[in-house]
Amino acid sequence: SLRWKTISMHQPLLSRPQTPFRSSSSASSRWKIIAVGVACSIVGLLGTTRLHRRGDGAAADLSLALRASEPRMMTRSNGLIGSVPKFRSLTRSEGPERLAIRCGASLRPNVEKVKAGKGTGKVVVSPSVAKANFLYLGEELSSAVRGGAEWLHFSIQDGRMVPKISFGAPVVAACRDAFPDTVFDVKLGVIEPEHRISDFIKAGADIISVHPEATLQLPAVINKIKDAGCSPGVVINPGTSLSTIEHIIEDIDVVVIMLVNPGWGGPKYMKEAVAKIKGLKMMCAAKGVPTPWIEVDGGVSAKNANELLEAGATALVAGGSVFTADNKAVAIDALKGATQMV
Asked: What is the Cα–Cα distance from 220 to 192, expressed in whole angstroms?
């Protein structure tokens, strides 16, 4: 009797159709699959957004990875370079090797030229890319290089260390292959430059100069630049003392003496700049080390170049005086003409 009641009590449950349970289970599985798909999409979107926020080529590298199976070649040109020589194209097979070339081998000849020129008294002109007409950037830079510019000066401004915002590593990278024998002189007017160095090394910088005020660990930043195979430099603003670089003078290849406060313009501190040029030469002589390239930036022209060169400057950043000239070769020759009188 007890057994019969037990069976009869459970019989309705056992005899119920199983379809609803299967249907519920299937629906649950489908919702789980949809949820997983949505989660993956969100994670992918966040990853892509983070790469785009990083900028400086990260998104382009992701694009290369995603489209690696495509047989066609993809270029790094971003449309800014118009009539310059053709760029070498990037293919999937060049991935890590390409980065290795940019970080080391391809930069070595230009870096060696910079190091070999220290203390020799040779003078170079470094037209400032920021003053070029970006609508015709390739043509402008080609004219400057053909006119005798051995260096090109890339002034990077982040809107914080320097009030203006200029451009980033993609512009440097777009120009690199078009001018393989030209020294790319990159001045980082950015806060905490240690976070940007690798971007510009990959882009093809030969010289990377930083502001002492922009970092808490200047020697470490200089060593990071050296270890990457680039020539390290330091920027001296009108209000910055030479004593800030005395402890690292043996480790730097370029010292940039600013005639003006970067990004602000205003009066040119010629007397102070001349005094710093002479003081830097005396400092190196006292320490028995080769004098680094003494580069002057901030309104250099044929009118004041001779005074700077007589003081001991060896690199002239001439922006407007070169790129606003109808004939860039003539403008550069005017600066070089001043060097011949020294």
From this structure: 12
